[in-house]
Structure formats: C-alpha cells, structure tokens
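User: Hey, my collaborator sent me this sequence without any context and asked if I could get a structure. I don't really work with proteins. Can you help?
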Amino acid sequence: MSGIDPIQRLRVARKAFLETRGLSLTGTGAKAAISDLEEVEELTFDEEWGGQGFKALKRAAKTSSAYQELMRAGSPSQPTDLRLPRHSATSIARMQDILDNCERGVCLRPGDRQRLGIKKRSTTALDPAAPSPTIGTLPDDFIHYSRPRAMTVREHARLQSFPDWFSFRGRTPQVGTDERTHAPLYSSGKRCPAALGRSIGRNANRTTAGPDGEQDHRFRERHRCEQRTLAEFQGNRRH
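Assistant: No problem. I've predicted the 3D structure and written it out in structure-token form, which is a compact way to encode the shape of the chain:
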C-alpha cells in the first residue's frame, strides 16, 4: 500500500460524492440544512415529553434544498427528536440580543460576553448562509439562526448529516441542568458527521482491499443498501 495517500483520495472523491447527491461544492449553510424543521403557529406537544409541557417542531411537507431531500430519504413520516427547549424570559431576551447584535458563526467575542454577563465561552449564533461550526456536546452551545432558542436534537443531527430515519436513544437533557453533559441523547456531538464517516469508511475499504480488489462481503452489502437509498433519493428529485 506504499504510495497511497488516503487523505488525497478523499479530496479527489469529494466532488463526485457531492455532485451525485446534488449538494454544493462550497458547503451547505445552516438554513439550507434545517429550515424545513419549522416552528408552526400552532405547536403540538411532543410525543414523548408533552406530558411535561414540552412542545415540538414539525417537519414541513416540502423541502427547500437538496440537502434536506437527502436527509429525508427513507423517512416518509415525521422524525423523532423534535422537542423544543424551554427558556426563561431573561434567556430569550439575551439570545435575541445576540442574534441582533453579535457576529454570526463564531463564538461570542469577549466584549459581547462581558456586556451580556455570559461566562460561557462556546455560545455561537448560527450563520444561516454558512456551514455550522463543529457540533459540541452541550445543547446550548448554539443559538438558532433566526429564533432566540437553543437547538433541538434533530437540528443538531441534521447539521451532523444524520438522516431523519436515525433515532437517538437515551435521556434528554434540559438546558440549564447538571445532567446535560452526560446525556446520551446529545452524543451526536462526539461523533464524526455521518456523511464524512461514510466517505472515510469507503475510502479505507478501498485502500485496504486485497491485490485482486476483492472487498469484504459486509461492505458490499452495505454499499448496495446505500446505492438503493441514493437511487430512491435521486428518483424523488426527478419527480
């Protein structure tokens, strides 16, 4: 395997990977990734947490980007993990101030943190036109690009390219509690983005394949499944 540069292989394969899925070569902005997850006028109670007063987003009937179409492939019904956080009036006002007056897509500057009385260093208001920064493990690291609130689990998952059929398991942390750093539901922040992981896996398999080019049976089965999903996605786009 001497002379094989797996990183260069990823760079070369990137263009075809994105183009076959109708995705932009310059990246997908936060709005293009999650704008179909809506806060409708009449919010309904969350299926799991509604008994405690929590309400949920609703996935819109139509998409507005190729990325959203890709994330929906194989998920005809409403996805899970749409529960909205609950904030105090003070927190909402402070997040609205951040949306109105602070730079987007980067952590709050020291002067803004001092003005707002925030000690937390990683608070970031998303830029709707730019790809999201690296997702962390805390639910209140990011502020939605147009709403004064923290992000839902599904929105975090979308930014990590987890498809809508993927369902997180475990306890849901409530913003402001000591449990939030240990909640498995937010483990997406500890994972490689799903699309990147798929590319790395395929590249590693090809790099380590035997001299006759034969690949592991499990990989071939997974590849066929992926190709069926991609074909379904491309068929839906044509219609």
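In plain terms: Strands lie at 37-38, 44-45, 55-56, 58-59, 124-125, 142-143. You can pass these tokens on to your collaborator as they are.
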